Predict the structure.
Amino acid sequence: MSLQEELGLQNPFIDIRHEAVLNIVRTSNLLSLRAAQIFRGFDLTEAQFNVLFSLHFTKGNVTQAELGKRLVVTRASITSVLDKLEAKGLVRRAKVAGNRRIHHVIITPEGTRVVQQLEPPYRMGIHLALAGMEDEGCRHLIGELEEIRERLRQMMGNGELDEPEDS
């Protein structure tokens, strides 16, 4: 179904690039909604899953600030997500010697167990959503999206895709 039909628009899009961006956004939203259904079964939000997934596949230590930057969230948001994960026993924060303001974020064994349980149904959902795409089509899509992100970084002038810092 076309995006025009899906959104119930009577007039066609007049700008193909705008239509393409709206398709990306709509698809992303639907993927997030489907993922949220899966995460709900594990009492997690998408943001909490993203933190656990990132920590599970990271070698070495990662600070709270690095994790927030990696996931493109504000300091307040990452703090809130980590507070909730810590309360669930899925992560812990460890002080860094010689610096009272910096903490390493560490996934706990229980957090690892949750990721290992959650990952198979999550990946299955991804495979079902992309069932019609061959590996080469996926590689092409990845390359196109990487190029778009790079142009956006350049447009933003700092090479980063960061949200504004909290005041």
User: Anything to note?
Assistant: The two ends are 43 Å apart (CA to CA). The CA atoms of residues 48 and 81 lie 6 Å apart. Residues 1-40 form one domain. Residues 16-40 form the longest helix (25 residues).
